[in-house]
Design goal:
The complex is a heterodimer.
Chain A (H helix, E strand, L loop, with lengths): L2 H14 L5 H13 L1 H18 L12 H16 L7 H26 L18 H7 L2 H31 L4 E3 L4 E3 L3 H15 L11 H15 L4 E3 H13 L2 H13 L1
Antiparallel strand pairs in A: 1-2, 2-3
Chain B lengths: L2 H4 L3 H9 L6 H20 L2 H18 L9 H22 L9 H8 L14 H11 L3 H11 L5 H8 L3 H21 L3
Helix pairs in contact in B: 3-4, 3-5, 4-5, 5-9, 7-10, 8-10, 9-10
């Protein structure tokens, strides 16, 4: 076999792999006309390639939500960083904490909205904004005020969903053993956070009225999931954690939360 | 997921990670984890190991983000990290004497209960999957990486060379040898 023929044999492999074109391809095809061995090679190699193309692993799904994986990564990074390695809650809950702070600012205005007030006092600009209500009323039309109220309600519902999502991701990403012999996992403060969120639900969500009507389905499913988590201790049997994970996945809750949050935030 | 959907491209996300913005991690994971999972799965042929490798790859990216100079694309870099980690995992498994074990029936049932499309269910572990796995396992590590990037990721020769830090000629030779070796293994394994 000559060196030239060796080079052509390599091209035959690349041809079978679908990787040569143009002049090289033409030359290789022309060589195949005269070389029975190379033709046989091409046929055999093409069947190897075809077998790989039929391999179902090429399109396999990871079977895990990106958010869950991201939370696991954050925990692993923190484990690597902290000697003794107990994960810090804030790595998962940092965004939720920010959202919580934002909700804390908004809640007083919602409380005000639940109490009956004279018509002129309907403006629900958050209390930290220093425009006097009478002045605000004179500056804004009823329509503009209604729009502000609607936007606030939707923003609050979005923050609530964000926080709930963080809690559910935390549970889904639970991986640290807290009691190895009993096969129990640490879910940190997720149960407590769930209880807090459930307490806020009425103020934050129900007060939204028609503004958050499109989110009712997701909100109801989130409430069910939070109730499940709220009943857990902080050190939970693995199968209980897996049950929550399965329910969340069956309802595609994390994805629906993400989509609904985007919709609510406009 | 495209850049418009995540609101940021890889470069921007890496820069945010490098500056300590942890919120950039989730969109980066979302953009790449499926692709990286398929690379690791193609290489290792084992679901749990593949997922571990992907997680480890993102941990490495997270930790090394501040050292990323921004001159290279993040995508090939992520692929390279994943390939290297897959090779490490493969060596570790080999040292432990672990060989490829197809998914057991129970695993297939879990996949069914997973409420997601699971095209591999019921196939891995069957004859063709086993033969293919055997043929891939018989390849030297780098050759296997070339085959996986070509036939499981459909990368071009140039992209494979860039990802693995090899010359174009080496990639071509590796692929040529790998296909011939796989052909021989598959022929031997024919019923």
């Amino acid at each position: 076999m000559t060196l030239a023929h060796l080079r052509l044999r390599r091209r035959v492999s690349l041809l079978a792999a679908g990787l040569i074109e143009g002049r090289e391809r033409e030359e290789t095809l022309a060589h195949l006309e005269t070389c029975a061995r190379c033709r046989a090679d091409r046929e055999a190699l093409a069947s190897v390639v075809a077998e790989m193309e039929r391999d179902p692993l090429r399109t396999a799904e990871p079977g895990i939500e990106a958010a869950v994986l991201a939370a696991r990564v954050a925990r692993a990074v923190e484990h690597a960083r902290v000697p003794g390695g107990r994960p810090r809650w804030w790595l998962v809950a940092l965004p939720a904490a920010a959202a919580l702070a934002a909700v804390a600012l908004m809640v007083p205005s919602l409380v005000g909205k639940l109490e009956p007030k004279p018509r002129a006092a309907r403006v629900t600009i958050p209390q930290h904004v220093t425009i006097p209500q009478s002045e605000a009323s004179s500056l804004m039309s009823e329509e503009a005020l209604a729009r502000i109220e609607r936007n606030l309600a939707r923003e609050q519902a979005a923050r609530y969903l964000n926080q709930a999502g963080e809690v559910l991701v935390t549970v889904a990403a639970s991986g640290a053993d807290c009691d190895r012999p009993e096969d129990k996992l640490d879910v940190g403060e997720a149960p407590e956070r769930s209880r807090e969120l459930l307490e806020k639900r009425k103020l934050v969500v129900d007060a939204g009225g028609e503004a958050v009507a499109s989110a009712r389905g997701v909100l109801n499913d989130v409430e069910l999931a939070l109730r499940q988590v709220a009943e857990l201790p902080s050190c939970v049997k693995r199968r209980d954690v897996e049950q929550v994970q399965k329910d969340v996945e069956a309802r595609q809750l994390l994805m629906r939360i993400r989509l609904m949050t985007r919709e609510l935030e406009g | 997921m495209g850049a418009s959907e995540s609101g940021a491209d890889d470069r921007e996300l890496m820069q945010r990670l490098a500056s300590g913005d942890r919120d950039a991690l989730a969109p980066l994971v979302e953009r790449h984890y499926r692709r990286l999972y398929r690379i690791a799965l193609g290489y290792l042929r084992e679901r749990e190991d593949a997922l571990d490798v992907v997680q480890e790859a993102f941990v490495k990216v997270f930790q090394a983000a501040s050292r990323w100079d921004g001159s290279a694309d993040a995508g090939p870099w992520l692929s390279r990290v994943t390939v290297n980690l897959s090779i490490d995992r493969w060596r570790r498994n080999k040292r432990r004497g672990q060989t490829f074990s197809p998914l057991a029936e129970g695993d297939h049932l879990d996949v069914l209960a997973d409420h997601r499309p699971a095209p591999d269910h019921g196939v891995v572990g069957r004859e063709s999957g086993e033969r293919l796995s055997k043929a891939l396992r018989a390849l030297p590590e780098r050759q296997r990486a070339v085959v996986v990037l070509r036939h499981y990721q459909e990368l071009s020769l140039e992209e494979i060379a860039r990802t693995l830090g090899m010359s174009l000629g080496t990639v071509k030779s590796s692929l040529h040898r790998a296909l011939h070796r796989m052909r021989a293994t598959l022929t031997e394994a024919e019923p």
